[in-house]
Amino acid sequence: MNKKNIRILTNEVETRFLPAVRRPARYIGGEVNQIKKDLAACALTVGLCFPDTYEIGMSYTGLSVLYELINATPDYAAERVFTPALDAEKVLREEHIPLFSLESRAAIADFDILGFSLTTELCYTNVLTMLDLAGIPLRAADRTADHPIIIGGGQGANIAEPIAPFFDLFVLGDGEKTVPEILSFFRAKKAESLPRAETLTQAAQKFDYVYVPSLYEPNYTDHKYTGLTTKRGQTPFTPSNAPKNGETENKGQSPINLNKRGQTPLSAHPHIENAIIDDFENAPLPQKPIVPHAQAIHERVSIEVMRGCPGSCRFCQASFCKDPVRHRSVDTIVAAAKANYHATGFDTVSLLSLSTADYPHLEELVDRLREYFEPHRVGISVPSLRVQQQLKILPRLVTSVRKSGLTIAVEAANDRMRKIINKHITDADLFAAVEAAYRAGFEKLKLYFMVGFPGETQKDIEEIVHLCKSLARLRRKVEGKTANINAAVSWFVPKAHTPFGYLPQKPREYFHDAKKLILDKKFELKAKYINFKFHDIDASALESAMGRADRRLADVIETAWRNGARFDLWSDSFAPLIWENAFKAHNLDLDTAAQRAFTPEDILPWQHLGGPPREHLQKHYNRAMELANQP
User: Fold this and answer.
1) What share of the chain has pLDDT > 70, as a percent?
2) Which stretches does the entry tag as region Disordered (predicted)?
């Protein structure tokens, strides 16, 4: 890592860029609560890169956490960078202006570190756009000491192989733990002026949550992925056979000498662990979030009340990668909510977690928040609700000034299917909760469903409509009126590190038929008060193909990007044909990749990257298959 002169592009941005883009508020910076430092005087400069637009990134709480966490160290500077919209990308290229940060309008290629928050597989092409606009080689192997260290974090780090060639390293697990340690390490190495490769190797040795892809070589036999080989010393291992701490032999393969921490001396860890911050109560929590210039998707005070989920839905990657469950105290949450409100003026406080209904002190927390915020006409939002006994009384508690509607992730339409997916909801609890919501004054209901689970029948799909109708008509019991139901239907995507990650995705034709079944049944039942919204089937297929792929997919991603793939999460820019052709260009098939099934004996492209023990997943899988095969 070299000491760099940082280019400030204020003149170029103000004279040639901002006047030419459609929404300049996305790029001007200078918002309330922004933190701007003298970059030249800082020991370490970090670009916090979110691979989507400003409106999406500014709604991501994790970015706010890292922003305040890094900038709390006086001689560290963290500045934000988002993916420019298509019109802005065109202007940057035509005017030869490198991608810049919002705070200082500094060329991000001159930063020491660029950290990308990887929240979904469909953001990968945006990562390449940002690197290319910055003037940074896409492939880690092509970078020199003059380039920043490119780090990937977030959920995408646990499935890193498809994008491994584009990153110098990945950090797995909780950012509140990893970021301070990683930055301290790189600050020291910057002072030592070590070669780039040596710095990365030392990072892999020092931290068991750091994955440096360049230290490993993927192996293939007859085009099938068969594991990794460590490059330094050429010590082979496959993650499924990696020795446990204290062992010295890899089940018949070349020996791996491990020290007490399970490290491979002079090489890298055979298994990368998720970092866990044990003291969640005192983990950094934003106090002064930035108030966006352009309207963000979510403009609210967002407080993470709990990390991890006790539910363990068998399709949910976050449920299996975020253990253990940890909570913040009511006092800490209320204090943070007050500080955030007075720093921003937002009119809603949102309580975030994978399953907020499982927060053990929810009633007390909501009562405390209402007591303070109702006089200020600030609403309380409790998303991520899982129906259970305590949810029955929740609508009584959440009597904020705005009762827009109640949102519940039902996932499946009957008790049998919910047992298969391990979703702890019964019809009895669901109807009791919705009736309580209607009595509390809620008029609308939003339900989330997923189609394509194992054991699913045509009747199960049609019951989605019947359930929505019954819940809508339930309001007649309370007020004599039918409720409006918004039902969002997504398509099952098998996810790595989950029990259902072994399963194939259903063919696209199955989902098209399911969509027709639902709409035909709605017409038959004359249920005009139910509004169905369906996820893009092609995007779900791509997500399945990418999410469980090995390192060979990097070539597909780069080809798709070079052929124009951008903002694949956005329906108005997603181009399925580009992706299908990119797979074909590398003798692969998108549908075959999406519909691939894995066996318990297969070496999985993600199994060296954190996640729960394979035996735990297999136990869940076997139980689900037993239930799915019952008449």
Assistant:
1) 90
2) 230-265
Sheet strand arrangement including 348-352: 301-304, 348-352, 379-381
Class of domain 10-241: alpha beta
Average pLDDT over residues 387-409: 62
Query: CA dist 528 to 408, 468, 485, 521, Å?
Result: 20, 11, 10, 11
Which residues neighbour 288 within 8 Å (Cβ) at sequence distance 6 or greater? Answer: 33, 68, 339, 340, 343, 344
Q: How far apart are CA 116 and CA 156, in angstroms?
A: 10
- CB of 311 closer than 8 Å to CB of 323: no
- For residue 304, give Cα distances in angstroms to 185, 327, 365: 28, 9, 13
Cα 248 to Cα 21, 135, 209, 216, 478: the distances in Å are 59, 44, 21, 19, 68
Over residues 352-374, mean pLDDT: 89
Instruction: Specify whether the CB–CB gap between 178 and 275 falls below 8 A.
Output: yes
Q: Is the pLDDT of residue 515 over 80?
A: yes
pLDDT in tens, 413-467: 999 999 999 998 899 989 988 888 888 888 888 999 999 999 999 999 999 999 9
State the residue for tokens 């019954």: 470
Burial of 475 (0-12, 13-18, 19+ CB in 10 A): buried
Compute the mean pLDDT over every residue in the chain, rounded to the nearest whole number.
90
In terms of Cα–Cα distance, which of 255, 256, 272 is closest to 264? 256
- For the CA atoms of 312, 316, 321, 324, the dihedral, rounded to the nearest 10 degrees, stands at -30
Every domain of the chain and the residues it spans: 10-241, 302-380
pLDDT-derived band at 381 (thresholds 50, 70, 90) equals: confident
CATH class of the domain at 302-380: alpha beta
Whole-angstrom distance, CA of residue 155 vs CA of residue 173? 8
User: Which phi and psi (to 5°) does residue 505 adopt?
Assistant: -80, 150
- pLDDT value of residue 396: 57
Residue 106 exposed, middle or buried by CB count within 10 Å (0-12, 13-18, 19+): buried
Q: What is the pLDDT of residues 70-85, one digit of tens each?
A: 999 999 999 999 999 9
- Phi, psi torsion values for 218, nearest 5 degrees: -75, 145
Look-up of token digits 């921490």: 261
